[in-house]
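User: I've been trying to design a sequence by hand for this structure and keep getting stuck. Would you show me what you'd pick, starting by listing the structure so we're on the same page?

Assistant: Good idea, let's start from the same input. This is the structure you sent:
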């Protein structure tokens, strides 16, 4: 059922949101010269995939976990995208393709070995990674790998349809702060 909802919502979001996506892409073109950001992440069954987001940092910024990123690298437009979660919209394509879900553990970088090991040990990689989830709405980021992996496991073990909607709504309302860049 959740995969069906992911397909419906991501398709709906991409179609209805297309004018907004184009507008953000054009503004991003002027902001950074390269509005889309692509990065290899660890997906379901530890299979790598390319995550797509709107670029919020200056091109050439080191590719590190968000909690390690330099806050001064975030552009003014990028800051607005992050605050409104609009930088995440291109990930609807990843959801539609089946690489991600709307709700699930945030996909980590290939070099985050401690988090990868903890998630593998707890079986977190059996699920699709998500745009948001329990860790994000509780402000838990990748700086605490063991705690993040355990929170992901708790979310997956207790996932219901109502919690799926709850995590999405809370994120839209601004609670999704688990992967913000430190100032």
């Amino acid at each position: 059922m959740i995969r069906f909802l992911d397909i419906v919502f991501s398709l709906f979001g991409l179609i209805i949101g297309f004018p907004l996506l184009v507008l953000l892409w054009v503004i991003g073109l002027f902001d950074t010269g390269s509005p889309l950001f692509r990065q290899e992440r660890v997906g379901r069954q530890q299979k790598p995939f390319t995550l797509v987001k709107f670029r919020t940092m200056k091109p050439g910024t080191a590719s590190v976990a968000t909690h390690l990123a330099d806050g001064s690298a975030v552009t003014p437009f990028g800051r607005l995208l992050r605050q409104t979660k609009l930088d995440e919209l291109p990930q609807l394509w990843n959801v539609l393709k089946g690489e991600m879900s709307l709700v699930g553990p945030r996909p980590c970088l290939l070099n985050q070995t401690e988090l990868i090991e903890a998630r593998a040990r707890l079986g977190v990689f059996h699920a699709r990674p998500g745009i948001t989830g329990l860790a994000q709405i509780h402000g838990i980021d990748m700086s605490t790998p063991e705690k993040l992996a355990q929170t992901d496991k708790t979310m997956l073990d207790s996932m219901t349809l109502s919690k799926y909607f709850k995590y999405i709504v809370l994120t839209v309302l601004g609670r999704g702060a688990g992967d913000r860049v430190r100032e």
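That's my pick for every position. To get oriented when you compare it with your attempt: The mean pLDDT is 90. The longest strand covers residues 36-42.
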